[in-house]
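User: For my dataset I need records formatted as: sequence, then structure tokens, nothing else. Please produce one.
Assistant:
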Amino acid sequence: MESNPISPLVHIRAHLNETSHLPLYQRLQRALRSAIEQHLLKPEDALPAERQLAADLAISRITVRKAIDGLVAEGVLVRRPGSGNFINTRIEKNFAKLTSFSEDMRARGRTPRSVWLKRSEGTVTPDEAMRLRLSPGAAVYRFHRMRYADEVPMCLEYATIVASCLPSLEAVDTSMYDALERAGNRPVRALQRLSALLLNAEQALLLQAREGDAGLAVERLGFLRDGRAVEFCRSYFRGDMYDFVAELNAT
């Protein structure tokens, strides 16, 4: 890990030495995530053994294990028994965590990019009015995009946003959630529905897959803190690149 002029280990040490009130294992998580985001650690790279990492950083192995366990749970790392811990190449999306595509990609060291298919202003369809609880004729913005990670097509996204929640159609640049946050209208909770599908010809062409390949369809309805619906989004993902995970408990 020390062989490169700007090695991941040097980067991680610098982050660990920064003044912070966070527990040490959380600081190590942030340092590892930062190294991934800056491509010092790349997809499919193996982390040093936990014992070696603990020795290199002069911290306990328990702290290293706790930090890595958290990143494995998030899907940033994948643990391969007998081989070690690796940067995850498949994208694992926590189904219980409300984050944007761009945030998910950056957290995994990927570079997100969008290509606009359509941006338009209009009025709600009957289906949108029912889902967003809007009156007929209410104004909405529609954003249709191709989403990429490291230039690999990952997702087709068709989003409808209540127009009163954004200052203008042009307010959305690279991140829709950033634009909503700037306007004070970022969703704080959402209902999501996941289903399997076979990609049709148009979806396969845009996602650089084959017609009939397995895909995932996700519908998301996002709500503001006061209970108003702000976003209805349908997204179509490549089944060979994306996993959705959720933590379940009995309480």
